[in-house]
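S.,

Sequence below, as promised.
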Amino acid sequence: MQPKLVETNTGKIRQVCIDCGEPFDRDPGEVEARRGTGLPVSPRCPGCRITRRDERNASVFESLRSGDLGNVRATVVGPDEGGERLYPADCSGCQRPIRLPFKPRLDRPVFCRFCLDARSGR
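The prediction came back faster than expected:
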């Protein structure tokens, strides 16, 4: 359970960040978006969430900046289920698993977004 701080002047209840200990107001839209999803509302203030997210994704960002995608963990892009049929394939450039909205042909290469962007010069 996340600690709460009651302001004596206003009686308003504020959340206390578990990382920095500073009180913060939670955005009502955030609570509403999480309702019914089973996902918990973050016990961190917005600033600490950004810092934590940046630390967690630092290796991916560095790989994207340097162009070395070999050490990025393979993730399959696309939903597991849904209205549109997706076909499994392997990227012809990096061999990562991908999902395509069309049935791939054996005589034509298919590329993940990273490899396609690299080939296009983006």
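The mean pLDDT is 79.

Coffee later?
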